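Exercise: predict the fold of this chain.
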Amino acid sequence: QVQLVESGGGLVQAGGSLRLSCAASGRTISRFVMGWFRQAPGKKREFAAAISWDGGTTYYVDSVKGRFTISRDNAKNTVYLEMNSLKPEDTAVYYCAASGLGPPDAIRSMTYDYDYWGQGTQVTVSS
């Protein structure tokens, strides 16, 4: 079992930055694909970013490309999401997820590809 705990969310003005962290426990995530998803009020949970087991491959939804950066530190069992140039439409609960389904170098972007989830952290961007 993998437990995931997100932190770093908060209220920020448009154009600002936040850094989310996802700390894993229970077992090492070094062979897991890790992802960040987000869910705005009244909307479905959507993919934001993912990273392969070694950090060598990353993938982003178009709406965050060039503004968000996903990274990981396997020694710390932690994944990060650096968010810059934030927009009001980025407002959502952000969830960290771990995928042990399939090869660790194959990026996945669907919620059903991930078998472990955190509780989420709220990000609110004011205009």
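Check your answer against the key: The CA atoms of residues 2 and 81 lie 19 Å apart.
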